[in-house]
């Protein structure tokens, strides 16, 4: 029969298939070569720092191995600056990794567009009658059409599940970061509250000299401002980021759904031989596939930046003393300074508590005779419990003795020991050992003391970035693997969908054509008898 001369299928689409496959291969090659193990570099750096004990005074480049990519801004030399988001060369070199996909998108757009245009011309102007039918070509195109349609469907499923998981892991990460920011803001707010309470003292400042008052005032304003700013920024940014994530998810779901529908409809129309509809879908698909290839590039870029950031966080956590690109963002003080700060807060707590206790033991809890003014103010009744000092005089931790009032609630405890005073003399007229004035000043001292005791360590952790390091460690260990994996899934799904739908488009056309020829040949065979068609075609 008419099986011998089968080279009548237009060569352009096949050429295009080859080109696409070649480009895709080169993309995967590039991607694969980027995923060298970055941990090794980290381990080596860590071992060097720990092993030799040399204080590294140069700048540590974060994720240096991973980020060694060609930099188009620097004559395609390898970029060597490590993870540094304030460096345009970093962005250029990361962006360059996605370039192949943008090239594929452009190539697809131009070449497929041209092919489409040329085949249009071919069908419209030239030989409407030059039909060739080959059973092998027909079968092959049907098989490939089915194969690519199934691939497209699988790609859509991968894309759908991948984006779902990616959205989940980004949302979880965001939640974690927000909760850490919330915790910080809340702590700062509490510190500022306790400083504000320390400010509210009576007329004469026995415990807090006035210059200290002014300092506390300034610090309190600063801390309160930081707390308010942090809280509002966190709120605003997290909402914005969440919105972007939700939009991205919606967009990806729509893409997956549209591509699925396109692949399915194209397959059906093509099988049923609905030429016109197939051509409409081909034109729609041509543009959509260009878009998805561009999106692939964007996701590859995202995937690489996520990977770099995770490795950079890891290395930063492992090298607490090194100077890094993160120093611009996170100004951390060194451990010695932090220890010094912590000691200072302990010292102040200790001394304030000590002063309060001396007043309690030497004045309030002593029954003076009336001629010992001003120590005598008619104090009477049960003894006021002294404050529990959380530190010994050498600033080591101290456990409370029974009967001592806890720093956290001493104010409530002491409220029961306040007497009423006659206004001019300031002498107690009722039972009690603390005048309201003394009470309010002691409360202020306790509030300050407690604030420093309770939140001092946290402030120091903020100061030396321990808090941030812990947060980063948590992110890098618990959230990064998911982020990396699912951004890769989404990327892979997009590539699959783009490639499979792109190839399907080509085979819709080829198959529809083969089918038409088959129908034509059959009809022709019926009219003229078998065996004649081949000769007729030429
Ligand atoms: C640190 O760097 C400075 C100049 O950048 C240099 O003078 C000094 O010797 C270096 N110290 C160490 C321990 O490498
Ligand atoms: C953070 O704080 C804001 C406002 O205070 C609150 O709406 C949000 O739920 C908190 N988020 C987390 C994760 O705790
Ligand atoms: C801040 O203070 C409030 C009320 O005193 C308390 O409920 C909360 O646990 C404190 N927050 C932190 C982080 O200590
Ligand atoms: C902190 O500042 C806000 C406004 O900036 C103010 O409403 C709030 O009372 C202040 N809190 C303290 C404890 O000073
Ligand atoms: C990061 O890039 C900026 C801008 O190019 C540069 O000033 C800075 O020194 C770089 N930081 C590191 C650690 O390389
Ligand atoms: C800070 O103090 C802790 C104990 O309080 C000690 O283990 C640590 O080595 C000190 N760090 C520095 C840098 O002095
Ligand atoms: C209070 O009494 C103790 C002994 O009980 C004494 O060491 C201390 O100096 C006295 N403090 C004042 C302020 O009088
Ligand atoms: C104060 O706190 C201590 C322990 O934290 C508790 O035993 C005591 O009952 C509290 N007192 C008041 C009046 O809340
Ligand atoms: C001293 O306090 C007692 C109550 O403990 C009261 O009865 C007495 O009137 C007070 N003396 C003066 C001079 O106010």
TrEMBL record:
Which stretches are transmembrane? 101-125, 137-160, 250-269, 276-302, 489-512
Report one GO cellular component. plasma membrane
Tell me where the signal peptide lies: 1-33
Q: Record's superkingdom? A: Eukaryota
Provide the alphabetized UniProt keywords.
Membrane, Signal, Transmembrane, Transmembrane helix
Query: What InterPro entries does the annotation carry?
Result: DDB_G0292058-like (IPR040283)
Q: What is this protein called?
A: Uncharacterized protein
Provenance organism: Stephania japonica
Organism lineage? Eukaryota, Viridiplantae, Streptophyta, Embryophyta, Tracheophyta
